[in-house]
Amino acid sequence: MAAPAAGAGAMRVSVLSPEQTVYEGDATSVVAPAWNGQLGILRGHAPLMALLGEGVLRIENGRETLRFQVSGGFLQVVDNVITVLSERATAA
After folding, report:
1. Domain CATH for 48
2. Which pTM was predicted?
3. Nearest Cα residue to 22 out of 73, 79, 63, 62
4. Number of domains the chain is built from
């Protein structure tokens, strides 16, 4: 089943680790530590799969900037839905 569509101007983001769902919500922008550098994502981004490196995942939702420490895993962008599957993900 497809994920619900994000609101106007927003993307839907899920940050998952093997132990738990670390974050689920809307975002206006995401900056992720990809394997070979930082990856910025805004609404309307082309479909993408990326390997994650180690570093801070930043999620801006218009009210605040959330930070999560991630290490390894994958990031997928499809139709304004971002899924981060990380070997380790914790609030930073």
Report:
1. 2.60.15.10
2. 0.87
3. 73
4. 1
